[in-house]
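Thread: Newbie trying to understand structure tokens

Hi all, I'm a second-year student working on a class project, and my supervisor (Dr. K.) asked me to get a predicted structure for one chain before our next meeting. I've only ever worked with sequences, so writing a 3D structure as a token string is new to me. If someone could post the tokens and maybe explain what I'm looking at, I'd be very grateful. Here's the chain:
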Amino acid sequence: MIPERLRLAQQYLDDAQYLLAADRLASAVSRAYYAAYQAMWAALGDPPRAPQWRHGAIINHFVRGYWFAPTHVPTGPGLLEPLRFALHQLYDLRLDADYDGVPIARAGAEEGVRTVQRTLAEIHHRTQGGHL
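---
Reply by user tm_fold:
Sure, no problem. This is what the structure looks like when written as tokens:
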């Protein structure tokens, strides 16, 4: 567990909630995604062969669940499979907001914030409050 990244994840979630309340939906989605990204990195630790995690890889590794259950079988669904679609959807929304200038619906931004909250809750649950 990397505590500094977990702290960043919470800070970015707070920022996303503030931006959502201010109706700054694209910025809220961007902060929400990076809150999830930092939370997953905190849980997984540093990547094995790169200075940073690639976006698709971090979601896949996180959802597999090896960070809290190293003996989980390598085939079949991940242990956190219900989060896979939501995290990919948040990533896609972030691309829409940051690169394509697509207007973000309030419902999408709200769901993005909920995805981060679920991600942090899983980390908290699986690590006894953020400590592996």
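A couple of things are worth pointing out once you decode it. Residues 106-126 form the longest helix (21 residues). The chain is about 70% helix and 0% strand. Feel free to ask follow-ups in this thread.
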